[in-house]
Model the fold of this input.
Amino acid sequence: MTAPLAYWVDRLDPFLVHFTGRFGVRYYGLAYAAGFVAAAWLLGAYARAGRSLLPRGKIADFMVAAMVGVVLGGRIGSYLLYDGWRGFGLDPLAIVRVWDGGMSFHGGLAGVILAVSWFARREGIPLLHLWDLVASATPCGLLFGRVANFINGELWGKPTDVPWAVIFPRSMPEGTPLHLILPRHPSQLYEAAMEGLLLLGFMQWRLWRSDVLRARPGALAGEFLIGYACLRIAGEAFREPDASLVLGLSRGTFYSLFMIAFGVFLRLRRGRPLAFPEA
Done:
């Protein structure tokens, strides 16, 4: 089919401030910053309410460790999990050019797990408790990140003729006439709603309206992994695969299966309850 001109065309500028070439202040970078700021605010709220063993004076240090884990893990994960390594011989420095884009949630998750594990050991804070805290705040970054994906016109959905479909010029070679570009699902916004808003609401409801954070260390992290993986798999049904399939599954779906398995393990595991300080 050809694309009717009635569909909205995604010509949004990925730069808030553009200096030259590929350099400037990008919405994608601002999304990461907003996610970290929101997470830090939530961690402060938990500490003030007596629901956290992470002292308020250590939140900044913790966030620095988490940011390093997210950025390094996300970039390396994107390079290794989504076939970037295949071009290593032709362009070995591609992995360090973060301004060209390319971040993997699953890689970022692995990076955060390692960074938080290091921080927990250094500060003597229960590891599973820190994982729970990170899990409760992570949907903030997912929400902002998926909106930034939409602004960038990347990670578009599959072709469709639904009334809210969007034409993504980057989905075809540069110079392709608009009437030849198929309208697609704005899957980035679907994922922002599911992985961001819906999952954030659930995690906050569980943290504030139950005793799971104290009574079952690690359970909240397990629920996040299961919830994210299931919502990611649902979103992948509308999203155009951005790499070759694995066993007939998109990369996002395939890697999410491992998250479900680990999440079930954390959810079923019974550890020793924690003693929280008074608010």
In short: The longest strand covers residues 15-20. Helices lie at 27-48, 59-81, 105-123, 127-152, 187-209, 212-215, 219-236, 251-268.
